[in-house]
Each structure stands twice: as structure tokens, then as C-alpha cells.
């Protein structure tokens, strides 16, 4: 007999994520496993739906979509003060699904199996000026590119859409002049300042030249990658190498720190992508709350990746 649908397990589904053709699979799996499905109707709606699910007694909320949908679900749970009573699941239906991969979730069916029998972990939750994010905060070129990447482009080209829009953006992009202050008790804070192509800060994600993109998300620390701009020709070369993050260049600096403050030198607000959601700021403070988010992880998840 099929399990009865309960209110304590809810799937918040974004029908616009990725190729948008998974809704029936998610509904069918949710019905089989006894989850209630709430479908978003607009950007930002997953924040409200997650909050409503908590109010209705949910103790498990899964985000079906990409990193942006997960971000909204977590923000909704945090907004109603329920991070300590709700477990979060991820059903990968987005374009990149970077966070899902980082926690060992590889497909829709495997996600539901994992929710049933897999491990739960407490992971760090990151905040940018008090706004939660799970995976990454990216400032500069890649954020501009992601703001420019339309849903249609993503549907047609998948992750390649981001590369296409990066190459388009690079024609008009000016590097950003920033000062990045990093704190790592008990050491003296390093300060990085200058013209940057990208400011890449990961909680769940790191930006290595090769190998796993999964960061340690239980260590109370950010993985910071700063890419220096070196004139227009250098900028193009840096972007070509670093955008795909397959090649190390001497313009890249990496740190592992517990807090970051970014100041933009002039008063032009810069685009920062928080899990793919764009905000524009001249100042941004990033903090971590260690082991604050309870999440269902797959077998491939490594708490301390090398
Ligand atoms: N019903 C909806 N209509 C239009 N936009 C929506 C709707 N529901 C959610 N959104 C917005 O869709 C955006 C993209 O979602 P999401 O990040 O989940 O997918 P993606 O971009 O395809 O995947 P990824 O982030 O993994 O690359 C989010 O910013 C979200 O606010």
C-alpha cells in the first residue's frame, strides 16, 4: 500500500529550474514516499512556501530545483526560526546542481532513497549581511554572467549557458576594485586589495584548478578564491582559464578563513551571486554559523574532502 501523504514531509518544487521537465517524476516519487508537493509560482515564492510548511508542522523540507531554489527554502526556514527543528533535502532539478553534487545527491530517485535511509549531517550555514546562503557567494564577472544568463539560455544549453554568457559579459566587463579583509582567529587578518575579476567564496563549494569542487562544510570556514585582473589582455586570459577553473594561474590567491568583509573601492554597487541569487552591494560582510543546517546527504558526501 502507498504511504499516506503527510504534512511533516514537504517538497517545494520550482517548475522553472533547469530544463523544467521533471515535475511529473518529482510528483510521482513524492506520492510514493508520502511527501506533499508545493509548486512555486514566482521567484521568491519558495521562501514563503518553506515558512508555511514549517507553520503547518513540517520537519523535513526538500527543495526540488537548483541551488537558487535550495537557497530560498533555507531562507524560508531560517526566517521562521526553525533551523533547529527541520531537516533539509535536495532534489537535483536545476541547471548546475552544484550543491546537490557536493552532498552526494546525484538524481531524483536517489534523492528520495537518501531521504528515506541516508545520513543526516549538521553543516555550516553562511550569511551575507545576515542573508543565508548555502553553497557560494561570487562577486564580479561570474556573478554578472549569472545575472545575464536567461532561463531560456539555461534551458537550451545547460551549464554551457553560463560559459556563453561569461564570454558575452567579458566584452563589457570592467574588473572590480575591492578590498577583502579576512579573519581567522588567532592569526592576523590578511587583507587582499586591488582589481579583481572574481571574488569567489565557498561554504559548500570551493573553486580548485582541478579535482573535487566540494569544500569542507563542517569546519566553520570559508574557502576564498580571489582572481586578480591584469589589464585587458590579462583579464581575458584569466577569465578563459579561471572561468572554467581547470587551470591554475599566478593571478589566483586562495585562503581558508572564518569571516570575510568585502569593500568595493568606488560607490558603484557590484553584483554578488548568493547561490545564484543576485544582490548588488558596495560592502558585504560574510559570516558562518557552524553546524547550523541539518541536511540529508548521499553516500558520496565526504565531511572532510581532501
Ligand atoms: N515559478 C517560478 N517562475 C519563475 N521563476 C521562479 C519560479 N520559482 C522559482 N523561480 C526562480 O528561479 C530561479 C532559478 O532557480 P534555480 O537556481 O533553482 O534553477 P537553475 O538556475 O536552473 O539551477 P542552478 O542554480 O543549479 O544552476 C530562482 O532565482 C527562483 O527565484
TrEMBL record:
Origin, by domain of life? Archaea
Which terms under GO biological process does the entry name?
Answer: phospholipid biosynthetic process
Fetch the SMART domains from UniProt.
DAGKc
Q: Name one GO cellular component term.
A: plasma membrane
Gene3D superfamilies from the entry?
Answer: 2.60.200.40, Probable inorganic polyphosphate/atp-NAD kinase, domain 1
Cofactor(s) the record lists:
Mg(2+)
Q: Which GO terms describe its molecular function?
A: ATP binding; kinase activity; metal ion binding
Please report the stretch or stretches of sequence annotated as the DAGKc domain. 4-132
Q: One matching Pfam family, short form?
A: DAGK_cat
Q: Tell me which UniProt keywords the record has, alphabetically.
A: ATP-binding, Kinase, Lipid biosynthesis, Lipid metabolism, Magnesium, Metal-binding, Nucleotide-binding, Phospholipid biosynthesis, Phospholipid metabolism, Transferase
Q: Which SUPFAM superfamilies match?
A: NAD kinase/diacylglycerol kinase-like
Tell me the protein's name.
Lipid kinase, YegS/Rv2252/BmrU family
Q: Please spell out the taxonomic lineage of the organism that makes this protein.
A: Archaea, Methanobacteriati, Methanobacteriota, Stenosarchaea group, Halobacteria
Amino acid at each position: 500500500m502507498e504511504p499516506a501523504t503527510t504534512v511533516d514531509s514537504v517538497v517545494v518544487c520550482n517548475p522553472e529550474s533547469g530544463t523544467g521537465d521533471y515535475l511529473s517524476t518529482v510528483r510521482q516519487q513524492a506520492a510514493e514516499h508520502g511527501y506533499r508537493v508545493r509548486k512555486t509560482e514566482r521567484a521568491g515564492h519558495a521562501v514563503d512556501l518553506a515558512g508555511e510548511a514549517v507553520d503547518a508542522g513540517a520537519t523535513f523540507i526538500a527543495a526540488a530545483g537548483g541551488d537558487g531554489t535550495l537557497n530560498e527554502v533555507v531562507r524560508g526556514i531560517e526566517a521562521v526560526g526553525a533551523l533547529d527543528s527541520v531537516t533539509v533535502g535536495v532534489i537535483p532539478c536545476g541547471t548546475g546542481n552544484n550543491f546537490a553534487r557536493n552532498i552526494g545527491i546525484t538524481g531524483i530517485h536517489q534523492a528520495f532513497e537518501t531521504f528515506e535511509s541516508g545520513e543526516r549531517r549538521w553543516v555550516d550555514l553562511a550569511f551575507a549581511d545576515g542573508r543565508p546562503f548555502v553553497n557560494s557567494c561570487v562577486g564580479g564577472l561570474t556573478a554578472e554572467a549569472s545575472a545575464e544568463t536567461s532561463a531560456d539560455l539555461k534551458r537550451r544549453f545547460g551549464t554551457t549557458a553560463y560559459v556563453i554568457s561569461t564570454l558575452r559579459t567579458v566584452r563589457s566587463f570592467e574588473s572590480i576594485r575591492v578590498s577583502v579583509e579576512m579573519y581567522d582567529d588567532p592569526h592576523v587578518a590578511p587583507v587582499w586589495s586591488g582589481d579583481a575579476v572574481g571574488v569567489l567564496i565557498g561554504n559548500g563549494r570551493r573553486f580548485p584548478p582541478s579535482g573535487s569542487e566540494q569544500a569542507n562544510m563542517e569546519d566553520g570556514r570559508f574557502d576564498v578564491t580571489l582572481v586578480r585582473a591584469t589589464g585587458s589582455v590579462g583579464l581575458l586570459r584569466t577569465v578563459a582559464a579561471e572561468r572554467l577553473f581547470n587551470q591554475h594561474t599566478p593571478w589566483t590567491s586562495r585562503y581558508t578563513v572564518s569571516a570575510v568583509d568585502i569593500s568595493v573601492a568606488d560607490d558603484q554597487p557590484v553584483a554578488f551571486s548568493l547561490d545564484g541569487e543576485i544582490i548588488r552591494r558596495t560592502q558585504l560582510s560574510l559570516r558562518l554559523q557552524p553546524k547550523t543546517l541539518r541536511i540529508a546527504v548521499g553516500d558520496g558526501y565526504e565531511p572532510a574532502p581532501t
